């Protein structure tokens, strides 16, 4: 009887130990799974917060992208085709004259300085943009030059200006010598021959205009007497003493190519100084 009782108790104890061990192992694994799930949950929660922040920023990013796309589209529209190169250079030349700037040099390049391919955001078309430099030398005052730059910024064509240099004209009071490089941009090149021909046509026109002006200036100069030429040079150079006689003679030589009587120049300068 005692043996049966002990066996029963031992069996019960073994069952409890087995169940307790199984429960402990199960609970331990369950706890580990719960911790892992909690970690995954926290990670997903953090990712959700990040995506929420990105989502909140998206309208601003989208707005900025649309603005940039519109700016690029507007810029592309202002870039002329290579066949319009002649029109652009003529517009630039006329705009300088319109602002009372005397053009001493206007030299468009016959070959592009640089070229880049860009994609039109509207049509998804790839466009070849070429950059042509124009060397320009002017005479005038910086106020008129500033007006020229303002009007150029609002022109129908996209042009840029660089390497601006301004110095006082030593022969004309209140007048500056201005030099810069203007860049003309063209798109969708047809053939290099067309571009070269267009540039040569305008270069020829500009040279013809310059030669015509020089010829007219020479004709007017030939009609003037030496006394008139010297008097005009004295006024132009702003001479204030006899020391300026060298500057006057040099000015006349550069402008007319003539060598006037130095004694006559001194006499006229002395007369002017007495009247001041």
Which terms summarize this structure?
Alpha-Beta Plaits, five-stranded antiparallel β-sheet, alpha+beta, 276 residues, 63% helix, 3 domains
Describe the structure in your own words.
With 276 residues, this protein is of the alpha+beta class. It folds into three domains: 1-78; 82-190, Alpha-Beta Plaits (2-Layer Sandwich); 224-275. Helix content is 63%, strand content 18%. The chain has seven helices and five strands; from the N terminus they run H-H-E-E-E-H-E-E-H-H-H-H. It has helices at 2-78, 85-98, 142-153, 192-223, 226-237, 245-256, 262-275; strands at residues 102-108, 114-119, 126-140, 159-168, 176-187. Strands 1, 2, 3, 4 and 5 form a five-stranded antiparallel beta sheet that branches. A hairpin with a 7-residue loop joins strand 4 (159-168) and strand 5 (176-187). Helix 5 (226-237) packs across helix 7 (262-275). It is elongated. The N and C termini lie far apart (153 Å).
Topology:
Elements: H1 2-78, H2 85-98, E1 102-108, E2 114-119, E3 126-140, H3 142-153, E4 159-168, E5 176-187, H4 192-223, H5 226-237, H6 245-256, H7 262-275
Antiparallel strand pairs: 1-3, 2-3, 3-5, 4-5
Ranges where pLDDT stays below 50 over 5 or more residues in a row are 189-199, 217-222
Mean pLDDT: 76
Classify the secondary structure makeup into a structural class: alpha+beta
Helical stretch tally: 7
């Amino acid at each position: 009887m005692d043996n049966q009782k002990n066996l029963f108790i031992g069996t019960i104890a073994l069952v409890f130990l087995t169940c307790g061990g199984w429960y402990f192992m199960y609970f331990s694994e369950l706890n580990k799974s719960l911790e892992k799930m909690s970690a995954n949950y926290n990670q997903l929660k953090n990712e959700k917060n990040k995506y929420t922040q990105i989502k909140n920023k998206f309208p601003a990013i989208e707005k900025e992208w649309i603005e940039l796309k519109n700016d690029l589209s507007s810029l592309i529209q202002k870039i002329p085709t290579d066949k319009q190169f002649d029109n652009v250079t003529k517009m630039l030349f006329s705009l300088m004259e319109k602002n009372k700037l005397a053009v001493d040099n206007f030299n468009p390049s016959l070959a592009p300085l640089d070229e880049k391919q860009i994609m039109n955001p509207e049509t998804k078309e790839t466009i070849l943009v070429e950059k042509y430099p124009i060397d320009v030398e002017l005479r005038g005052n910086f106020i008129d030059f500033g007006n020229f730059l303002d009007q150029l910024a609002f022109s129908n064509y996209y042009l840029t200006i660089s390497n601006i240099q301004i110095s006082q004209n030593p022969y004309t009071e209140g007048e500056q010598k201005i030099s810069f490089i203007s860049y003309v941009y063209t798109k969708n090149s047809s053939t290099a021959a067309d571009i070269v021909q267009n540039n040569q046509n305008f270069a020829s026109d500009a040279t013809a205009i310059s030669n015509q002006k020089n010829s007219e200036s020479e004709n007017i100069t030939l009609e003037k007497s030496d006394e008139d030429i010297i008097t005009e040079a004295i006024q132009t150079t702003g001479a204030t003493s006899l020391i300026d006689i060298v500057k006057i003679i040099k000015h006349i030589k550069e402008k007319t190519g003539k060598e006037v009587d130095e004694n006559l120049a001194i006499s006229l300068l002395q007369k002017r100084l007495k009247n001041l």
